[in-house]
Inverse folding.
């Protein structure tokens, strides 16, 4: 599903963010990516979501070569993946419904289909009763669940989550991880970056540890 | 995402978030379009005045002294043969003298006492020209016509106030051209004014743009609300400028009607036609939209969220 093959990424400076990263993630897999700040986790995720290109090597996501992708192809590729961030990235001044519906509206889905699907997804993340609430009226955990609902609305093959529990208390973090496991159980490949090692230990999943841009451990 | 109501929502959000900036932009654009519309209306009305004078324009074809009646009739026949001449009226020497005396009696009675001066008017034909004149092209036609008439044997001179007509026509042409040039400069300035306002909107909504990119919005989807905002802003500014100009027109026309000298011109002066008004509103919208497009044409090239918005 996701393949990194001898990937290097160097930013001007030069800053070597990734060095010879080779990684294979199978379809339907649940994987944790851990490592200290500045280790290269975010760079790796930016490549998976086509926000960045490798300096050398190959990154293949759901059959798409990120390095060869033209700028016109990027938006259409992003419609096939789901992305969740630590800071939620939700549209302020809009309702829960409007935020979750966004990816389907962009794809030009019929309003009736959008309503049906948004309600299904909000039901699955336990927020159907707050669909008319504005984002500002929600707690951090609820906002993250809205972000996850938005990333799942178009049934992506891959869900990547960059520090999804970074701004949440331990109890809320567990709830979010449970939700991601349920998503994975339905067949979606889930790739979670976190520096919360306790949280990783409690879930017996594959863990990739990255340090100074290199993969240190894959177990 | 692509509906008109969403575009309006986006426009409303911009106004709510940057009311001061938007008002400043609207004011500058309104002032700019006011000048353009004023220049256009002034040039158009001056042309109308020129045309109204042109309609009543008469050529005076002065005849040589001592022509016999048969020669005068021959000249009349020659003049009536010319297609662009509408009417030919003969003014005998006596009537020309009487007309002059009647006109000058109150202004310069002393002149009338000079018998040599007051009785020295030649006979003439007063010639009306078809279509009058309103443009420099018409003026050239008049010049050619005068030259043809001048060649008729027995014609001493042809006069139609050449110098005055030429100067006025040149003045209107110059005004029209300079209004056009000034208009173009102001339109170019409008692109920058709209562009700056849209850049501020883009900057304020940078996070929103990144989120849209994240969920797969194409560049046209992201640019569209901003271009729409520019269109509405441009159209709104033209509407305000039209209202200002119309107010000025009503006031100006009232002043002219009250003035003894200009009252005759007041009915000739009119505001822009409905077609021109619509064209100005659409044109203003297009200027706004183009200014906005210039500002946002570089956002979202597929990788911009990672590189910062290239604006």
């Amino acid at each position: 599903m996701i393949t990194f093959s001898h990937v290097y990424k160097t930013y001007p400076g030069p800053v070597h963010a990734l060095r010879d990263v080779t990684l294979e993630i199978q379809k339907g897999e649940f994987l944790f990516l851990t490592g200290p700040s500045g280790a290269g986790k975010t760079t790796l995720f930016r490549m998976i979501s086509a926000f960045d290109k490798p300096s050398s090597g190959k990154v293949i996501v759901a059959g798409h070569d990120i390095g060869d992708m033209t700028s016109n192809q990027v938006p259409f590729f992003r419609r096939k993946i789901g992305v969740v961030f630590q800071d939620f990235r939700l549209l302020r001044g809009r309702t829960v419904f409007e935020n979750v519906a966004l990816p389907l509206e962009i794809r030009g889905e019929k309003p009736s289909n959008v309503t049906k699907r948004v309600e299904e997804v909000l039901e699955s993340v336990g927020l159907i009763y707050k669909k008319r609430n504005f984002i500002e009226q929600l707690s951090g955990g609820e906002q993250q669940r809205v972000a996850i609902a938005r990333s799942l609305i178009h049934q992506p093959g891959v869900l990547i989550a960059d520090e999804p529990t970074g701004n949440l208390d331990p109890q809320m973090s567990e709830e979010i991880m449970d939700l991601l496991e349920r998503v994975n159980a339905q067949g979606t490949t889930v790739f979670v970056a976190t520096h919360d090692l306790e949280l990783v230990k409690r879930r017996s999943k594959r863990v990739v540890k990255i340090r100074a841009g290199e993969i240190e451990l894959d177990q | 995402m692509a509906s008109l109501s969403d575009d309006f929502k986006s426009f409303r959000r911009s106004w709510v978030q940057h009311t001061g900036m938007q008002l400043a932009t609207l004011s500058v654009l309104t002032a700019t379009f006011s000048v353009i519309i004023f220049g256009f209306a002034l040039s158009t009305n001056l042309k109308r005045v020129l045309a109204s004078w042109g309609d009543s324009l008469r050529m005076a074809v002065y005849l040589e002294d001592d022509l016999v009646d048969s020669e005068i009739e021959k000249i009349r026949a020659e003049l009536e043969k010319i297609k662009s001449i509408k009417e030919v009226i003969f003014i005998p020497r006596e009537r020309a003298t009487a007309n002059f005396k009647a006109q000058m009696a109150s202004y310069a009675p002393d002149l009338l006492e000079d018998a040599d001066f007051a009785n020295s008017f030649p006979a003439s034909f007063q010639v009306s020209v078809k279509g009058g004149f309103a443009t420099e092209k018409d003026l050239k036609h008049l010049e050619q016509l005068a030259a043809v008439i001048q060649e008729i044997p027995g014609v001493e001179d042809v006069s139609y106030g050449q110098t005055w007509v030429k100067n006025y026509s040149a003045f209107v042409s110059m005004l029209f051209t300079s209004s056009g040039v000034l208009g173009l400069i102001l339109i170019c300035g409008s692109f920058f004014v709209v562009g700056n306002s849209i850049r501020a909107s883009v900057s304020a909504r940078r996070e929103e743009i990144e989120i849209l990119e994240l969920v797969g919005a194409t560049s046209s989807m992201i640019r569209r609300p901003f271009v729409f905002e520019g269109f509405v802003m441009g159209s709104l500014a033209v509407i305000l400028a039209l209202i200002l100009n119309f107010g000025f027109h009503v006031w100006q026309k009232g002043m002219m009607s009250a003035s003894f000298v200009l009252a005759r011109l007041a009915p000739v002066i009119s505001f822009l036609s409905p077609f021109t008004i619509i064209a100005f509103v659409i044109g203003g919208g297009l200027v706004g939209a183009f200014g906005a497009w210039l500002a946002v044409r570089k956002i979202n090239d597929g990788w911009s969220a990672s590189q910062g918005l290239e604006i």
User: Anything to note?
Assistant: Residues 120 and 128 of chain A are 8 Å apart (CA to CA). The two ends of chain A are 18 Å apart (CA to CA).
